[in-house]
Amino acid sequence: MLTTSLAAPPSPLSARRRWTVLAVCALSMFLVGVDTTIVNVSLPEIGRGLDTGTRGLEWAVDAYTVVLAGLLIVSGALADRFGRRRIFQCGLIVFGLASLVCALAPSLGVLVAARAAQGVGASMLSPVALAIVVNAMPDPRERARAIGVWASVFGLSMAVGPVTGGVLIAAFGWRSVFWINAPVVVAALVLVAVFVPESRAERPRRLDLPGQVLLAVVLGLSVGVLIEGPRIGWASPTALVCYVLTMAAAAGFVQVELRHGEPLVDLRLFRRPPFASAVLGAAAVFVALNVSLLLNTLYLQHTRGWTPLASGASTLPMALGATLCAPWSGTLVGRFGPRRPLILAGGFIAAGGLCLTNLRQDTSVPVILLAHLLIGVGFGFANAPLTNTAVSGLPRSRAGVAGAITSTARQVGAAIGIAVAGGMAAGAGPAGLAAASHPGWLLVTACGLFLLVVARASRN
User: What residues form the membrane-spanning segments (predicted)?
Assistant: First the structure.
């Protein structure tokens, strides 16, 4: 978490060193973002290689995002206690080793387990890297620009994942999407050792292990039911038991957090409408992005017969929009506050979803590319103002907690988006996939419209 880093004294680092730290941490964040989406375009090839269907492939994606979401906050707390650079380096090592196991996986079970291990490593990178960056840049305006760059890199990583995956699969096969992580991890380890200073919290927070366990149970059961619901039946005895266990774990989590002196998730923050709406908005943006990417991959490869490379290349407008608009969004937030970029984000995402709500087997390619561009632009505008809205008006001692909760919400949204889109596609053949995806594109539109609500709740 970023609690003490936001309360840090002015940084002794030179301007060049501060921006070098940002670049090094952004490289690692790029790796995390790419691995959230690079597997999407690989799914049909992985399915053929490991002889598994759509539901099993959903687990290969969500094992990563669920574990990442469940451990983000506790990893930040560990970094505050034992040293941010040290935990960051451990995360890189775990991530790199797990990537090698993914590349060598002989079965779906091994791949899912290795993807979960990747999530463990990634959880040590995302919040810790941001804490390092914020700690290095105490000036609010410089920090706003840095967050804009950060959002740009993260947006770019999420959007170019499918493009990168398509290129690698065309050249080397699906296992290459995991092999590629090894040289990046090695380079990041060297750069972190050379350029990133160590930092710790002056007063580390106590670990909330009961809260951590209950949060993991809630996330795992919720996503598991979404993935397996179409197969086991939404009203089956197994599903009903899962509903009860999820509600019991959620109730237990609330009770534990309200009674804990230093809770994993400070539920009192949700009493503030801007914070609560920003957290939900962050989840909604990632639901929209991941629904779009997965439905796009399955539709283009199964229904239209496109290759993974062509399918990945179709997301280039999305990557372009996210890359160009994320730093612009950071600038707008620094000058005018979060409301204007949030309105732009919601409008563009909703427009992109509307373009495909009547998707057919023969929908023209320009319409598909336009939808991707609009969604990418909206995604680029969204991240910086949502982070700003979550932490605005809070004491610095609580801003780090708010940032960590927002990051968790993003990954929860990613997991839910994959599960929902996969459920729509699982029962549809190639000919029916376009029609089956219509509720998904309506969901993307609704997520965009919800950001307009978040904009109204934000403070300029």
Answer: 21-43, 63-79, 91-114, 120-137, 149-172, 178-197, 209-227, 233-254, 275-295, 315-334, 341-359, 365-391, 412-434, 440-458
* Of residues 168, 171, 182, 174, the one with CA closest to residue 31: 182
Task: List, as one string, the DSSP characters of 58-69.
Answer: HHHHHHHHHHHH
- Dihedral sign of CA atoms 178, 181, 183, 185 in order: negative
Distance CA 349, CA 94 (A): 35
Q: How far is CA 168 from CA 42, 99, 172, 300, 398, in A?
A: 9, 15, 6, 18, 42
Q: Residue 337: left (phi > 0), alpha (psi -120 to 50), or beta?
A: left
- Identify the helix (H) or strand (E) that includes residue 99: helix 84-104
Structure tokens at 408: 């968790």
Asked if residue 132 lies in contact with residue 11, where contact means CB atoms within 8 angstroms, the answer is: no
Dist CA 108 CA 158 (whole Å): 24
Give just the sign of the alpha carbon dihedral 130, 131, 132, 136.
positive
pLDDT in tens, the chain (460 residues): 344 344 444 446 677 777 788 888 887 778 877 877 788 788 888 888 888 877 788 888 888 888 888 888 788 778 777 888 888 899 999 999 999 999 999 999 999 999 999 999 988 887 677 777 767 776 767 776 776 676 667 666 766 778 888 888 888 888 998 998 889 899 889 988 888 778 776 666 677 788 888 988 988 888 888 888 877 888 899 989 999 999 999 999 999 988 887 787 778 888 888 888 888 999 999 999 989 988 988 899 888 989 888 888 888 898 888 878 877 887 788 788 888 999 999 999 999 999 999 999 889 999 999 999 999 999 989 988 887 777 665 655 555 566 678 878 888 888 888 888 888 877 677 778 888 899 999 999 999 999 999 888 776 6
